[in-house]
Amino acid sequence: MTETSPVARRRTFAIISHPDAGKTTLTEKLLMFGGAIQMAGEVRAKRSGTQTRSDWMAIERQRGISVVTSVMTFEYADRVFNLLDTPGHEDFSEDTYRTLSAVDSAIMVIDAAKGIEARTKKLFEVCRLRDIPIITFINKMDRETRDPFELLDEIEQTLALDTAPVTWPVGSGRSFAGTIDLRHKLLRRIDVEEEPTPVSGPDDPLIDTLLPAHEIDAWREEAGLALEACKPFDLDAFREGHLTPVFFGSALRNFGVRDLIDAIAEMAPAPRDQEADQRTVAASEPRMTGFVFKIQANMDPNHRDRIAFIRVCSGKLARGMKAKLVRTGKPITVSAPQFFFARERGIVDEAFAGDVVGLPNHGTLRIGDTLTEGEDIVFRGVPSFAPEILRRIKLNDAMKAKKLREALQQMAEEGVVQLFLPHDGSGAIVGVVGALQLDVLKDRLQAEYGLPIDYEQTRFSICRWIEAKDKVEHERFLNAHGSSIANDLDGDPVFLAANAFSLKYEQDRWKDITFTDVKDYQ
Ligand code: GDP
């Protein structure tokens, strides 16, 4: 793979942060660096596509959600960046987790006054499951902040992640004057647009002109310490997910963003090789492979078509090609793959490993599906997490039970909720990771299927997939717990427990049964 090959040029990443830390602001600034999207020879934006585009926009407005921003592709410094958006709700949905299964690196945005917040930590843990390399951006340096050392220490302690400050702030809040690049000894000033100035180090006299006199000594001491005592940046440790390079800046003031995007271009990995169940697929392989990590429904209730977002893992996805959908063994034609430019959509002629394209379909594609040029492999790693909230569906019109069953099946295939059908024949149970998904399900069942539903508490609060090496033991467990067993969408059994105590009780009694809270899609 040469530096200039399409794969080597790609950077596919996400931004993880707590709400309000500045993700949206940073995204806007990153896209500005992208400028006009021109991918000569690779993509032909559909010039006559204004019709489609405006339809699309209308749909977005109607639902008040952004489809286009699911993926934002832009070019900068001879790199193609695919920025995958993690949903912005305060609440968790599985979409967030799945999106992170499709990236090669992530930017962690931290509010300099707040440090690591709950959601950042949770998202980080998901990244850690796959050892995704993380670049840290400490934002809002133009406001009152916590001490930089304290922030680094918090990252190390809370996330068990080494830190290597690549830039160091010169002042903060009102006296925030810029940053100094500790490796290259370059000073970037917030009041000057130009290229950074070479300096001798923290003791450079230029800095005396930037900070209030009473802050200079303390700052020098601190910056000197950062230079001496902090870990230097180590590419291998970063790529393995053990160390994060740290940048300081202000997204709002568009400061520090260039250093950040340069870091993604230089440090962040090109598309990674992906584990399939039979073998590892190298990103540089010539034959196309990819997996579906997200499904977005068409908002028009009369058209049940959906967009499946595919991460290309190897080879070239070309318009019009035939691909094999491994789950069914059937071929599908990739007729109108969509590419998502910063603010537009276009039809793709070609996409490469690392790219994300949208495939319109009528329900053929499911989350976790693998597409290949014929080989029978299945990518693992689009996980399903045990839901944290379980509810039984109460249908307010008993005549529509069959329709409800179909609708729930579709919603589950789309990944809106997880569906569990109890072995004892009682009503369907839905599970979600974040409570917001329950509202989404209820709204959509009403709007798209005319099904008015309510939720009922169940006696269960915990759900675990159950596995056992010994088939007989597995069977014995299922039979002994009939009323607490349900099947998921794939027909795999789960054990439903009333609380942590009863789960523990069963775990202690059934040593040969494994209870898992994460399941890979088949
Ligand atoms: P998100 O919820 O993470 O997407 O955060 P936003 O980008 O919407 O930012 C939340 C708020 O913080 C907004 O009012 C932004 O204007 C503000 N903000 C973002 N970045 C900065 C920054 O660098 N400095 C300051 N002072 N405010 C910022």
UniProtKB/TrEMBL annotation:
Domain Tr-type G: 8-272
Domain of life of the native organism: Bacteria
Sequence positions that bind GTP: 17-24, 85-89, 139-142
Keyword tags: Cytoplasm, GTP-binding, Nucleotide-binding, Protein biosynthesis
Keyword Nucleotidyltransferase: no
Pfam families named among the record's database cross-references: EF-G_D2 (PF22042), GTP_EFTU (PF00009), RF3_C (PF16658)
GO MF assignments: GTP binding; GTPase activity; guanosine tetraphosphate binding; translation release factor activity, codon nonspecific; translation release factor activity, codon specific
Cited Gene3D superfamilies: P-loop containing nucleotide triphosphate hydrolases (3.40.50.300), Peptide chain release factor 3, domain III (3.30.70.3280), Translation factors (2.40.30.10)
GO cellular-component term (any): cytosol
Principal place of residence: cytoplasm
Localization terms from the record: Cytoplasm
Keyword hit for Aminoacyl-tRNA synthetase: no
Biological process, per Gene Ontology: regulation of translational termination
Family as reported in the entry's similarity comment: Belongs to the TRAFAC class translation factor GTPase superfamily. Classic translation factor GTPase family. PrfC subfamily.
Protein name: Peptide chain release factor 3
